[in-house]
Specification:
There is one protein chain. Helix content is 82%, strand content 0%. The protein is mostly helical and 188 residues long. The radius of gyration is 36 Å and the shape is elongated.
């Protein structure tokens, strides 16, 4: 009995969602649009997004210039000692940022060389080292599995190449087993 109620409620939800979807489509929208019409729609949407991006950039530039103006006004009201201490703090912060950036680059370089020694391809090694430097373990584990799969394929190809050719069913009676088998069969 409860299952029937659940089914009826699910059917009602599907009908409601279908009605909402149909209501949300603009009037006159045809589901059978040609490729040119779809391209025109995508182009129009892209243009709208580009206009919105331009507005955001303009607002960002305006905010940055206003912040710079306020900073100048604020600094003009400070005494020399306070200005010097703030400038020193800014220089220290900039230096720390630069050092952190350089340390990250060194980690990536060292990680790349270690991964290359482990047999990774150059592209995977660089991506893996970058993922480790950024602390992105999900990406690193995915790259690890790709590198392992590539190594297995390479070893498999190397092993297959080292194997001798298989001579099965050549049709000649020169195989010692076959010759021995035939000679034993003659006895019976």
């Amino acid at each position: 009995m409860d299952n029937n109620k659940d089914i009826e409620m699910t059917e009602q939800n599907v009908q409601d969602n279908t009605t909402e979807t149909q209501a949300s489509k603009p009037e006159g929208e045809n589901e059978n649009l040609t490729a040119e019409e779809m391209l025109a729609q995508v182009t129009a949407q892209n243009q709208e997004l580009m206009n919105e991006l331009a507005k955001m950039r303009k607002a960002s530039d305006k905010n940055a210039s206003e912040a710079a103006d306020w900073k100048k006004k604020y600094r003009s009201t400070l005494d020399a000692q306070t200005k010097a201490s703030e400038e020193a703090a800014e220089k220290k912060a900039a230096e720390e940022t630069r050092v952190a950036s350089l340390e990250r680059k060194v980690k990536i370089y060292e990680g790349t060389s270690k991964h290359l020694k482990m047999g990774w391809t150059a592209e995977l090694a660089e991506k893996g080292a970058t993922a480790l430097a950024d602390g992105d373990m999900d990406t690193y584990m995915e790259l690890q599995s790709q590198a392992t799969a590539q190594a297995i394929e390479a070893e498999k190809a190397k092993w297959l190449k080292s194997r001798p050719d298989i001579n099965a069913g050549t049709g000649t009676d020169t195989d010692p087993f076959i010759l021995g088998f035939k000679s034993e069969m003659k006895k019976y």
